[in-house]
Write a structure and sequence with these properties.
The complex is a heterodimer of chains A (about 200) and B (about 400). Chain A has about 200 residues and is mostly helical. Chain A has helices at about 15, 30-35, 35-75, 75-80, 80-105, 120-165, 165-195. Helices cover about 70% and strands about 0% of the residues of chain A. In chain A, about 35% of the residues are buried. Helices cover about 70% and strands about 0% of the residues of chain B. Chain B has helices at about 15-30, 35-45, 50-55, 60-65, 75-95, 100-125, 130-135, 145-150, 155-165, 175-185, 190-195, 200-220, 225-250, 255-265, 275-285, 290-295, 300-310, 315-330, 340-365, 385. The chains are: A mainly alpha (about 200), B mainly alpha (about 400).
């Protein structure tokens, strides 16, 4: 088949966009729909977990370096300020929770076939793939922001606590709001991935 | 200028802690060791120096004073400076670039003082060991270098050799080189005649000028919060120097109209709020009235000058400058993730040491009425804090 210009109105766009070669694509729509939903879902799991851990790690070293330094001259701040580190760790836990939920939803077909049947539930298939990819991104990207935010606030909290012990509880409230950002991510992620189920058998 | 630009930037709010979080947190922990209002209150109530000693054992100075049996103002000053130097060296060993170069810059000022002290001392023929004992510990360079300074003869050739062999290796060598170059160009003569003819004080002022300019350039290249805060502090420092040079030159040959343009102008740093318009005006100033007129154009300095002209017995202009400096340096601690806290810590500790020496001297000489004329650091009763209410 070769590229044909529009002959008359009856000819649709799809007909005119046929490829010269069987290896080329007719456009982005074809590229994206030909990416396997299994790939989308598993990348979603990887991004969700990976970005969450990046955010948590960032927050922990931001807070930890200040905590270690300030504790040299003000040792009383040691135990209390570990709460900031725990808040950062919580963002990583959100990522793990999301990753486990999503990983349990990825199921392979019952029959070992090399090509899916005509009656396969393609709607549910693609819905599951896209849903889990974006759930992973929701959690991952919000946790990067949350982790950095808690880290900077935790660093200032440790230094402020070293100066004046009454500041600790007040700055902790700032950190609580910062870690709430991660909770938003996981709530939305769970809602997004709720209805996602991978079909395991063709529709009857 | 003479220092290469920083290899990396300090980093923004989210990346500063990678390399510099630990030293900054150390400084903020050390901030706890400043004497509080209550400590100053107790100290000023003391009758004898033994009472002072007793009060100091509860503060952070307990370890520093443990070796001293009988407290004297100079002994206290020596012990306190040793403590500051120990803390500074600890911070310096924990620092990486560009913080390491920044902290080295802080020490260059004291190195310049030490070099000038050694040069002046050898001209008067004093013993080298006595001179080294008097050197400021923050600005020490190699012992061998220091001991070799007096071995040079006090002749033209001797000075030239001194510079070429000894001073050129010290970190302040480049400033010396620039000063000699500038003077040689101006006088049309050679290096040896410069060192003979120019006074030691003027050499020192020129070196400090080059140091401030170099430091300002370095800090500007660092960028970010550091450039904002340290840039401002150094500008104010440069202006203080310019005003002090002008004030101290009244009544000396430097104030003659012929000398003002050529010599005094060269001592004004090329940074600061007064530069370039203010310093151009300061060149023509011949006495205090003209200085007052020039300073009136700059609101932040007119208020300081009014303190000087109004109550000259109660508070000198140095005290007014100290108060303003303490206010600015305390504000450096209000912001996080920048290098200004290191400079501010050293300067505020110095102010505290000055306060302690003042208090102990007043107690020793029995002048209790003067005892409250110090500038407390991080005080809740500071005039600029209470004025807002």
């Amino acid at each position: 088949p070769t590229t044909q210009p529009y002959q008359n109105e009856k000819q649709t766009m799809a007909d005119s966009l046929t490829c010269a070669n069987k290896f080329c694509n007719t456009g982005w729509a074809e590229v994206l729909t030909h990416m396997s939903p299994y790939g989308y879902a598993n990348f979603g799991i990887a991004f969700g977990l990976g970005f969450s851990v990046v955010g948590a790690a960032w927050g922990i070293w931001l807070t930890g370096s200040s905590l270690v330094g300030a504790a040299v001259k003000a040792p009383r701040i040691r135990s209390k300020n570990l709460i900031s580190v725990i808040f950062c760790e919580a963002t990583a836990i959100y990522g793990v929770i999301m990753a486990i939920i999503l990983a349990n939803k990825v199921k392979k077909p019952e029959d070992p076939v090399s090509e899916l049947a005509e009656a396969w539930d393609y709607n549910g298939f693609y819905y599951a793939g896209y849903g889990m990819f974006s759930a992973g991104l929701s959690v991952g990207l919000t946790n990067i922001a949350s982790g950095i935010s808690v880290g900077i606030a935790g660093s200032s909290c440790a230094l402020g606590d070293a100066q004046d012990a009454s500041l600790f509880v007040k700055i902790l409230i700032v950190e609580i709001f910062a870690s709430a950002l991660g909770i938003f991510g996981i709530i939305v992620g769970i809602i997004q991935s709720n209805a996602c189920t991978f079909p395991i058998a063709p529709l009857e | 200028m003479t220092t290469p630009p920083p290899a990396s930037k300090p980093g923004s709010l989210s990346t500063f802690n990678i390399l510099h979080g630990f030293p900054e947190a150390l400084v903020r922990g050390m901030r706890l060791s400043f004497l509080q209002d209550s400590d100053y209150h107790h100290l000023t109530q003391c009758e004898t120096l033994d009472d002072v000693r007793l009060n100091m054992t509860e503060s952070d100075y307990a370890d520093a004073l443990a070796d001293i049996n009988v407290l004297t103002p100079s002994g206290l000053q020596g012990a306190a400076i040793e403590k500051l130097v120990t803390e500074f060296k600890y911070l310096r060993t924990q620092a990486v670039e560009p913080l390491a170069t920044f902290m080295d810059f802080i020490t260059y000022e004291y190195m310049i003082e030490n070099v000038m002290l050694l040069l002046k001392g050898t001209l008067s023929g004093r013993d080298i060991n006595e001179l080294i004992a008097q050197c400021h510990p923050l600005g020490m360079f190699k012992e061998s270098t220091m001991r070799s300074i007096p071995t040079f003869e006090s002749t033209a050739q001797g000075y030239s050799d001194l510079y070429q062999t000894v001073l050129v290796d010290t970190p302040v060598g480049p400033y010396f080189a620039m000063f000699l170059q500038e003077s040689a160009d101006r006088m049309g003569g050679e290096i040896r005649s410069v060192l003979e003819e120019v006074e030691i004080e003027i050499i020192k002022s020129s070196l400090i000028k080059f140091w401030i300019e170099d430091f300002s350039q370095f800090v500007d290249k660092l960028g970010g919060e550091t450039a904002t805060i340290m840039g401002d502090i150094l500008k104010v420092r440069a202006d203080t120097n310019a005003i002090n040079i002008t004030l101290n030159s009244f009544g000396t040959p430097l104030n003659e109209p012929a000398m003002r343009m050529s010599d005094r102008k060269r001592l004004y740093p090329a940074v600061g709020h007064l530069y370039p318009a203010g310093t151009a005006m300061l060149v023509d100033v011949g006495d205090e009235d003209e200085l007052a007129r020039v300073l009136e154009l700059f609101p932040q300095y007119s208020s300081i000058w009014n303190i000087h002209s109004a109550a000259s017995a109660d508070k000198s202009i140095d005290d007014a400058f100290y108060e303003r400096d303490v206010q600015m340096l305390e504000l450096a601690f209000e912001s996080q993730m920048h290098f200004g806290v290191f400079y501010a810590y050293v300067k505020l500790k110095e102010q505290e040491i000055r306060n302690l020496v003042w208090i102990t001297e007043c107690i020793l000489q029995g002048q209790k009425e003067e005892i409250n004329k110090f500038v407390p650091v991080f005080s809740f009763h500071a005039p600029w804090r209470t004025k807002r209410r």
